[in-house]
Amino acid sequence: MRKTISILVWLVILATAFGAAAYFWLHFVYLPQQIEIPNQLKTAVEFEIKSGEGIATIAQNLEKAGVVNSAWVLESYLKQENLDSKVEAGYFRFEAGETIAEVAQEIQHGGVKQIAFTVLEGWNANEIDAKLVSLGLIQQNDFALFVREGGSTFGNRPEDFSVNRPVTDLEGYLFPATYMLDPKNFSVDDLVAQMLTAMDKNLKLAGYDAATSKRSLHQILTMASLVELEERSEANRPIVADILWRRLDAGWQLGVDATLFYVLGHKENLTQADLASDNPYNTRINRGLPPTPICAPSLSAIKAALNPEANDYWYYLHDTKTGEAYFAKTLEEHNANKNQYIQQD
């Protein structure tokens, strides 16, 4: 019995000594080393710390976002420095190459009070402008004129994808998404730069390669903008894209009424005078694509423009009651679809 107790005592002593040594090594050797190792981010990350979130959750989320290399190291460092109770909620922007020590200091001071600004798929510059005006961020036309004049420090350098366009106008080159904005330091230039960067990223996701593409970027984004407004169904978009590309290649008028809505201010109904109007966006009378894209195309529409689905149709229309698309190979079939699915006034 005494021998057993003696062994247990020694085991306890050894375990305590080992635990103390491990604690010392972790907190006074390993931890100081790890907090100074830069993260591996390649670009800055926007991050939100929500009110009520605990240190463990925050640390884990920061690790998932790539802002810190180890949630455990960040949490341990905050506790060791008595900073765990000083972390504040808010929106933060973390740069590539920051260390855990730097991140720990930044989250002590509260994030920038930002607002979420959503650009819907299919919006054009005027619609984005109106939303920014409603939020009190700009005066009317500040954004629209900036876009039409090809502004932004991003997009004006030779290496930027957005200079690959035959016109100054940036319409169609701005990706629709949700952006975090700082109302106190809002800049149209900064927002446009973010949207151009997002478009660049999504073009890559869609598989666009300037070196191998048979179509120019401007043609692709213009076609994507037409598909965006012409067809809501993701499944039908590649079919519509193929019809429009073939019409273009065959020298047909595209006959896309969305281009007229764009130039005329998105009227609900087109009159005979509208349909006969002499402007370069009237694809009822002019052959070829309109001069610019007509909206911010989604990733779905871009993919459709890049990868049209081969088919034998030349015409399409939508049921005025259900919105369902109907395709036709001949004008006779198309007219029959009109009689059946287009409600006459």
Compose a concise summary of this entry.
With 345 residues, the chain is mostly helical.
Architecture overview:
Helix content is 45%, strand content 8%. The chain folds into 3 domains: 62 residues, Endolytic murein transglycosylase (Dna Ligase, domain 1, 2-Layer Sandwich), CATH 3.30.1490; 92 residues, no CATH class; 125 residues, no CATH class. It is elongated, with a radius of gyration of 29 Å. The termini are far apart. Helix 9 packs across helix 12. The strands form 3 sheets. It has a two-stranded antiparallel ribbon with strand order 1-2. The protein is mainly alpha-helical and 345 residues long. The mean pLDDT is 86.
List the helices and strands and how they pair.
Layout: H1 2-34, E1 45-49, H2 55-64, H3 71-80, E2 90-94, H4 100-106, E3 115-118, H5 125-134, H6 142-148, E4 178-181, H7 188-206, H8 217-230, H9 237-249, H10 257-264, H11 272-275, H12 299-306, E5 315-318, E6 325-328, H13 331-341
Antiparallel strand pairs: 1-2, 3-4, 5-6
Helix pairs in contact: 2-3, 5-6, 7-12, 8-9, 8-12, 9-12
